Amino acid sequence: MTRSKPTPRVTPDAARPVEQPEPEFPAQRQEPPGLEADLEPAPRWRGERYRPADKLKGLVALVTGGDSGIGRSVAYHFAREGADVSIAYLPEEEEDAVVIAQAIEQLGRRCLRVPGDLRTKEECNRLVAETVEEFGRLDVLVHNAAWQNHKPIEELDDDELVRTMETNVHAYLRLARAAVPHMKAGASILATGSIVGLDGSDQLADYGATKGAIHSITRCLAKELQGRGIRVNCVAPGPVWTPLNPSDTGRDRKEVARFGQDSPMGRPAQPEELAPAFVYLASNSDSSYVTGIVLPVTGEPA
Fold it and tell me: Of the residues 76, 89, 172, 207, which is catalytic?
């Protein structure tokens, strides 16, 4: 009897670790809200080893903070999965918004850019209305836009407190309120929470409070909307390399250079390492039985 020779075992690319930038970044500062175009090194958001499978084909997604950071990568991955995308961003971030819009259009998908400040109900309503007018539907809402500044509690003035609450919490509720009437069974609402909302962090009392609120709102909306077939979930990242870091006025240049080094992996995540979690939670082929969860993507054991 002739025995066949065993086939050599080849490690697929998907099993190999992704090469990461050096853990220490150049010292840098930006004026808020910050631009991804000026960030060094540039964040990784394209997910070059990600393999799409039409999980969101024909759907329409609205992503706040979609110009940069996690939101940019989420918008791009959604487009790769077949969705048309509307992105919201501050007017000062137009340069970043053009980059992601062009990238989405190169995939053959449509991208609507809607600049504005989500701290008012009028702007939240307008964003949803323009998205529905442009695409005729709304299937996935992602509230990702956020404001953060490190400040000791005795230096936390009311203007800063109100801005953090309005951007992070009020906008989430207002956007959901405006979006739900346009959503049908199978739609989903996603939010970006934070490890700070789970574990806390010094000098981030206001930001941590908003992220804890986002986690709670997610669970409440999941219960309220389950009977209508709308799932609501949240992704809670650990440190991620985005323009939010060098534009945090409470951090100095040296702190930015060391950002994420104290995490168990010794580095911050890249946006492309968060985006697949959003795809999973938005996709009815993957997570149709998942609602009301806060999914930690923190680079550390639970």
Answer: 207
pTM, two decimal places: 0.92
Q: Check residue 2 and give its pLDDT.
A: 46
Which of 11-15, 55-59, 232-236, 242-246 has the least mean pLDDT?
A: 11-15
Three-class SS state of 114: strand
Nearest to 286 by CA among 299, 277, 298: 277
DSSP state of 2: P
| 142 three-state secondary structure | strand
**What would the pLDDT profile of 235-273 be if each residue is shown by its tens digit?**
999 999 998 888 888 878 888 888 888 888 899 999 999
* Mean pLDDT of the 58-70 span: 97
CB within 8 Å of 281: residues ≥ 6 apart: 188, 190, 231, 233, 235, 287, 290, 293, 295
Counting Cβ atoms within 10 Å, is residue 67 exposed (0-12), middle (13-18) or buried (19+)?
Answer: buried
- Give me the chain's average pLDDT, please: 92
Catalytic site residue 207? yes
Domain edges within the chain: 57-297
Other Cβ atoms closer than 10 A to 30: 18
Is the domain defined by 57-297 classed in CATH 3.40.50.720?
Answer: yes
- In angstroms, the Cα distances linking 197 to 10, 247, 265 are 42, 20, 20
